[in-house]
# Entry
Amino acid sequence: MALLDVCDLSVSFGRVAALKGVSLQVQEGEIVTVLGANGAGKSTLLRAILGAVPAKGGGITFADADITRAPAHERIQKGIVLVPEGRRILISLTVEENLLLGAHMRTDQDAVARERDAIYDRFPNLAERRHMAASCLSGGEQQMLAIGRAMMAKPRLMMLDEPSLGLSPLFVSKLFDLIRELNAGGLSVLLVEQNTGKALAAAHRASVLELGRVIMAGDPAALARDPRLQEAYLGEDGAHPAPNPSREELRP
# Structure
C-alpha cells in the first residue's frame, strides 16, 4: 500500500475550485514530482495534504490511516512535513532557534540534539552561524535551513514547494543532490518544482496539474518526451533528463 494516497481530492475557496478530483500516490522511498503552471493548484495540493486547507471532497490516506479530516499537527506527528515556497524561516531568530522550531512537538530531547548535530555536520555553513540571526544567511543557506528545520520533525514524507526558486544555478545543483541524498536515506519526497528538467531527472514518477486537474501522470522519462510537456515546460536543454538512479546507486 502507498505511503501517501490522495484520492479524488477537491478543494475550493468560496466559489473557486482550486483542485478538481486530484489523485496521486507516493510509495515508500519514492520521489514524486508535481509540475504545472502558476495557478495550476500545486501549492494548494501540498497544503491540503498537510491539512492547512480543508478538503471539499475525496480522501487522503497516510501510512494506512485516513487523515482527510485530521488537523495539521496530527499529520506532522504522523510524519508529513512541508518546506513551503519562500522558505518561511524566522529571520529574527538564530539559525539554531529556527532548527529547533521543527522539533517543537517532540519530547525525545536527546534524539533531537543528536539530529541537530547531524544537520550541522551536513550543513557546515549553518553550524558556523548557529548563534547568528537567520537574516545573515544567503538564499541558498536559508533553503538549507528550511530543509534542516523540516528534518528536525523526523518526517517520513517531505513535501517541498518550489525549493529552487530564486537560487543560483550552483545552489540548485546542490539542492537536487541533497534531495537525492535524503531520498537515498529512506525519505519519501513529494516535490513541486519550477525547474522541470531537474525535477523529472530526480523523480521516480511525475504528475502534471492544469487548472486543478491531473492531465498527465507516469514515468518521468516518458513525460519528458511528450510533445505537450516539451512545448509547455521544457526547453531544449531540459527535454531529455537523465533517468533517476536507483537508491542503491545514490547511497554513499
Q: What stands out?
A: The longest strand covers residues 16-26. Confidence is low (pLDDT under 50) at residues 236-252.
